[in-house]
Amino acid sequence: MTPEAGVAASLEARVWAALAEVNDPEMPVNLVDLGLIYGVEVGEGTVRLRLTFTAMGCPASDMIVSDIRERLLAEPGVGEVVIEVVWDPPWSSARLTRGGRDALRAWGLSV
Hints:
Blueprint: H1 3-19, H2 31-34, E1 37-43, E2 46-51, H3 61-73, E3 80-85, H4 98-106
Parallel strand pairs: 2-3
Antiparallel strand pairs: 1-2
């Protein structure tokens, strides 16, 4: 692995960790555990990510995008964040991680 590839891999790991700190504003579950992040690409200070929501017309979508951008721009080495909202494949509860399922069950939701 080249030094540049190692730095990019390290930044990508930090980006994923940062995304795991961003909660859905309607429930205390992070976006990674909810399965809302469909992909992350890191290169030369730019983070591109593909994001979906649990439903079209999600009232918290603008807040979530803003929270993601703010958190990632606070990460050293990130100078630009490009967020693409995607709807294909549609989100389903199958995308939840075990931690996401446990958090939703703790809230009394059946998943």
